[in-house]
Amino acid sequence: MDLFRQLRLVRRHWWIVLLTVMVALGVTTLVTVRAQPRYVASVTFFVTTPSQGVSDAYQGGMFLQQRVKSYAQLLTSDRLAQSVVAENPVGLTAEQVQRSVATTTETGTVLLRATVTDTDQNRALRVTETLSAKFVELVGKVETKPDGNAGPIRIEVVSGPRVSSAPVSPQPVRNFALGGLLGVLAGIGLAILRGLADVRMRDAAGLQRTTGSPLLGEIPFESGAKASPLIIGDAATSARAEAVRKLRTNLRFVDVHEPARVIAVTSALQGEGKTTLSCNLAIALAEAGWRVLLVDADLRRPKVGDYLGLDAGVGLTDVLVGDVGVGDVVQRWGDKSLLVLPSGSAPPNPSELLGSKAMADLLLALRESADIVIIDTAPLLAVTDGVVVAVQADGALLVTQQGRTSRSQVAAAARSLHSVSVRLLGCVLNMAKVPKGDAYQYEAYRVVVPAEPVPAHAGRGAAPRHAENRDNGHVGDRTQELTRLSG
Hints:
- This protein is α/β, with parallel strands linked by helices.
- It is built from 20 helices and twelve strands.
- The strands form two sheets. It has an eight-stranded mixed sheet, with helices on both faces. A four-stranded antiparallel sheet has the order 2-3-1-4.
- A hairpin with a 5-residue loop joins strand 8 and strand 9 (338-341).
- Residues 459-479 have low confidence and may be disordered.
């Protein structure tokens, strides 16, 4: 995985990083508040030798440096700790004193520094003073010659003992900086792992790879789209409407040698916005001057009539069973060249009805009656209706909602189309999160024009135009070709 993809995953799951940092800072605060202050007392020794003891200066220096290392171990020995406790009882055992003592030496010098760390400031100083005195005394005994004279090594205290006025721990600034850094690193790791474990379809590139088809459009998410799903009125100049127009252009030029005139719009699961996209695509095509026929072939959960505000009581199913002619149930929507064939009454056998010869004959006739036929079909993974309709169309358009459908579900939907040799024209990523920069560019270039009047019957939940349909008898609004089809 490249660096840019990792950065995209971190940006997508920024809340994980924020949450991890907050938890890390919370734990750091708890540890810092509960920690007991610790003080450090120190003393520095200088190891020297009389000039008459060693004739060669270089050998003498090497000799003293080796001695300093031995003395560092002596300062933390059991014997010296027991001597300190016996000389100055401070409420600590010899083992506790031994653990509190640390030594450091500077390379190339004969300085030896001992530190005592304790939660009690005064006790740390007392232990250090006693340790210093006992250490000098012990070295003196060790280095005394058998004849009672002083040996070649002498220990002098050159600094201390002294104790720090402020506690050396806890250090809030250091702790918070370290806790925040660890939180950021842990958050980045968790965000990347979350992104790798996320199987949902998150971007257009992944949708292209999964379906093996070109990306024809990205429809941006808009909070007001649920209340006003159609690209009419004020929504006609929105970024969502412009994305649908781009889809219209890409769809018309996806294959100039074999253009698709009958297009089935489907999705892997329900609720991914295929019906809304079918309606908006039909509206966009009609705006461009095409004669468009929108067919609601989702006979199990038809929604086209609800979105467009049309009476869907009589429609496709009634035509297929031979009760009415197609010209008697096709309705014109608005003042555009858009005709709608609603679903009609709910049949007991949708799959058989959509796969019948009557359906094939109807699509053949509709192909000759309109420039483009858009068919809203059922989801592919729920039932077989969508595949049955797509087989009879010139091609299919697969709609996927970003962040909802998994990659395996999209792949299964694409396989169901490929397995019956359906021509997959392309895919559409619906409700996509558009970068703020792209949205700003569109708004900056957007031209505000007076919105055209919205049809009185348009929009979700609008009342059907029964009166207008009765006055026209569906005859004045249908095209000449559909009149011929109704026979």
